[in-house]
């Protein structure tokens, strides 16, 4: 054990009125480990389910999926390094930390700041890339691309400052060597406030696309809530910014940093979770459908008259409209990834939450061949049920399982 009376062996002499505690020193980071483990595990599960859903269920991995994976990997590195930092004195009084450990702590803090900001930026880029699939509208996409550029430029500026704030660079963790460092308060507060502003704007970008959608108000509200879940990330960033001035001016830096550690865990992993949530609906539709269909089952159990009662293969326009409406009300958050790819439609990307209806009109005999994909075929068929279905247009799908043949013809009198 180090001699507690030899100040040269410790990071800092004991201030007046304080006592050095070389064994089991007090800590301000009691909740840091639990917060880090819990948020990292939840983020990891969210990313794993997202990749499984996009790669196996939907079979349509996109660049936003790879970006969120990178964000999680960096977030995992951040969490591991934070645990290491806690072992060498983060959360302890600076005068209770041996000098060699304090040097390690500063190195960890240097790398942690870089991994933190990069992970957060990649989760933002994942969300913005997802936005590009929401609408083909020109000005919306220009806005998204502009913010992709802003986030990228912000990340480069942040990393440049962190790496080169001291000259030479290693003076950051070796304050005893010759050199100089620029002030921290101004640049760090500016970067932190800019981060909050970017987060808030990113939250409001999809509102312009969601509000014009011709879907029930209740469904619009649900969609907005999903995207606004990112507001929790903003709240974490705001809390970190509030704590920052006290940290940057503190003599007992290692004690004051605990708040930043806890909120850093929350911000990094909450960003990853929020970036993953919009892509999880197909997973629940296939493996946990009761979560999404409880309303459908409840409404279908109510007695209906013979003229309006729906059957799985109803062949009236009224029943089709009612079944379509019921599906729309039951699935709060459909996305275009759950439906067959409609290549050739100009507004395909905008029709995220529309039920698919195909109508083919034959001229000459004044008759229509109408086909409507049933609940199972539309939502579960391409996800795992394989069979053969022949529609009025003559198309067929074949595979193992139940064969269903429907051919509905409606003739109009003269």
Automatic annotation (TrEMBL):
Cell compartments where the protein resides: Membrane
Domain of life assignment: Eukaryota
GO terms for cellular component: membrane
Domain Rhodopsin: 49-285
Membrane topology designation: Multi-pass membrane protein
Chain positions covered by the region annotation Disordered: 300-348, 386-414
Biased composition regions of type Polar residues, renumbered to the chain: 308-319, 405-414
Keywords: Membrane, Transmembrane, Transmembrane helix
Membrane spanning residue stretches: 32-53, 65-86, 106-132, 144-164, 193-211, 223-242, 262-280
UniProt-listed InterPro entries: Rhodopsin_dom_fungi, SAT4-like
Biased composition regions of type Basic and acidic residues, renumbered to the chain: 326-344
Family indicated by similarity: Belongs to the SAT4 family.
PANTHER family xref list: INTEGRAL MEMBRANE PROTEIN, PTH11-LIKE INTEGRAL MEMBRANE PROTEIN (AFU_ORTHOLOGUE AFUA_5G11245)
The protein, known as: Rhodopsin domain-containing protein
Source organism (scientific name): Bionectria ochroleuca
């Amino acid at each position: 054990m180090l001699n507690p009376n030899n100040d040269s062996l410790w990071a800092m002499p004991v201030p007046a009125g304080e006592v050095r505690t070389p064994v089991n020193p007090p800590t301000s980071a009691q909740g840091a480990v639990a917060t880090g483990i819990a948020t990292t595990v939840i983020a990891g599960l969210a990313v794993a389910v997202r990749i499984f859903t996009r790669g196996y269920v939907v079979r349509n991995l996109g660049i936003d999926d790879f970006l969120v994976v990178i964000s999680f990997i960096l977030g995992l590195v951040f969490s591991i390094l934070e645990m290491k930092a806690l072992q060498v004195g983060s959360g302890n009084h600076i005068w209770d930390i041996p000098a060699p450990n304090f040097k390690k702590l500063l190195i960890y803090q240097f790398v942690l700041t870089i991994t933190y900001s990069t992970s957060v930026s990649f989760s933002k880029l994942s969300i913005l890339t997802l936005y590009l699939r929401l609408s083909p509208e020109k000005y919306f996409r220009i806005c998204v691309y502009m913010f992709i550029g802003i986030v990228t430029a912000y990340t480069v500026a942040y990393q440049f400052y962190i790496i080169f704030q001291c000259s030479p660079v290693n003076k950051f963790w070796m304050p005893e060597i010759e050199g100089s460092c620029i002030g921290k308060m101004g640049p760090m507060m500016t970067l932190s406030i800019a981060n909050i502003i970017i987060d808030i704007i990113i939250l409001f970008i999809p509102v312009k696309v969601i509000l014009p959608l011709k879907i029930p108000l209740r469904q619009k509200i649900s969609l907005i809530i999903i995207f606004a879940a990112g507001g929790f990330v903003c709240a974490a960033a705001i809390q970190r910014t509030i704590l920052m001035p006290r940290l940057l001016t503190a003599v007992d830096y290692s004690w004051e940093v605990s708040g930043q550690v806890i909120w850093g865990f929350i911000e990094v992993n909450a960003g990853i979770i929020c970036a993953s949530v919009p892509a999880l609906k197909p997973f629940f539709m296939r493996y946990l459908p009761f979560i999404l269909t409880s309303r459908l089952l409840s409404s279908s159990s109510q007695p209906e008259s013979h003229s309006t009662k729906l059957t799985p293969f109803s062949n009236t326009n009224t029943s089709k409209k009612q079944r379509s409406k019921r599906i729309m009300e039951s699935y709060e958050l459909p996305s275009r990834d759950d439906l067959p790819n409609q290549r050739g439609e100009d507004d395909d990307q905008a029709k995220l939450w529309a039920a698919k209806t195909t109508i083919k009109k034959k001229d000459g005999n004044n008759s229509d061949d109408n086909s409507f994909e049933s609940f199972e075929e539309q939502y579960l068929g391409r996800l795992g049920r394989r069979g053969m279905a022949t529609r009025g247009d003559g198309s067929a799908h074949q595979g193992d399982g139940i064969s269903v043949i429907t051919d509905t013809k409606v003739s109009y009198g003269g």
